[in-house]
């Protein structure tokens, strides 16, 4: 598990080198494959409760570790970076806070509904459902999230159709402060 979580440190070095979008898309694809593997393994184990199926158990363990690694390299850290970059300066703190509230809220709903969901559609079925949601997320990321690496705040504003990035207000305040300073 430690090796799987260590991959999150890899993301810090790849974020600016490889770019946010390629890391996000590849990690989401890896998560999708991992969820399908986990769903497959759990379905096989669930259908043969009395038999030992070592390959299915190994698949479940490997899929779980792979999922953690892919999440730690991409979706985990990149969504926080992306959120911090796309909001205008004066709305950045509120936007980031709201995105984290939504993130934790959805995580809570998934956690609280998992047992009922797994009873309704089996444990394997639950992970196939999560794989389907992850596939939709990949399509959304591919369609709507552009690369933001190396862009200025003004370029980011134009990229997302924001006309006032907040930099104008800061520039005006700096000019006012400079004008008020006495010159010798």
Highlighted features:
single chain; 82% helix; 184 residues; elongated; mainly alpha
Biggest sheet features? none
- The end-to-end distance, rounded to whole angstroms, is 64 Å
Overall geometry comes to elongated
The total of helices stands at 8
- Specify the helix fraction band: over 70%
State the low-pLDDT regions, or none. none
**Strand pairing plus helix content: what structural class?**
mainly alpha
Count of individual beta strands: 0
Mean pLDDT: 84
The value of Rg in angstroms is 22 Å
What portion of the residues fall into strands of 2 or more residues? under 5%
Q: Give the ordered list of helices and strands.
A: HHHHHHHH
Would you mind describing this structure in some detail?
The relative contact order is 0.14. The chain has helices at residues 2-18, 20-47, 54-73, 75-86, 92-121, 123-144, 153-159, 167-180. Helix 3 (54-73) packs parallel to helix 4 (75-86). The longest helix has 30 residues, at 92-121. The chain is mostly helical.
Q: Layout of helices and strands, plus pairs?
A:
Layout: H1 2-18, H2 20-47, H3 54-73, H4 75-86, H5 92-121, H6 123-144, H7 153-159, H8 167-180
């Amino acid at each position: 598990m430690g090796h799987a979580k260590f991959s999150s440190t890899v993301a810090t070095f790849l974020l600016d080198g490889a770019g946010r979008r390629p890391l996000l898309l590849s990690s989401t694809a890896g998560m999708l494959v991992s969820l399908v593997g986990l769903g497959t393994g759990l379905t096989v184990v669930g259908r043969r409760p009395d038999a030992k199926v070592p390959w299915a158990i190994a698949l479940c363990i490997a899929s779980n570790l792979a999922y953690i690694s892919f999440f730690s390299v991409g979706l985990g850290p990149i969504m926080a970076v992306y959120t911090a970059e796309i909001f205008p300066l004066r709305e950045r703190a509120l936007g980031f806070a709201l995105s984290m509230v939504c993130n934790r809220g959805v995580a809570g709903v998934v956690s609280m509904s998992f047992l009922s969901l797994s009873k309704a559609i089996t444990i394997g079925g639950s992970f196939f459902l999560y794989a389907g949601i992850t596939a939709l997320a990949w399509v959304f990321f591919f369609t709507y999230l552009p690369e933001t690496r190396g862009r200025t705040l003004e370029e980011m504003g134009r990229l997302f159709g924001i006309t006032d990035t907040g930099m104008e207000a800061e520039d005006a305040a700096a000019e006012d402060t400079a004008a008020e300073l006495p010159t010798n």
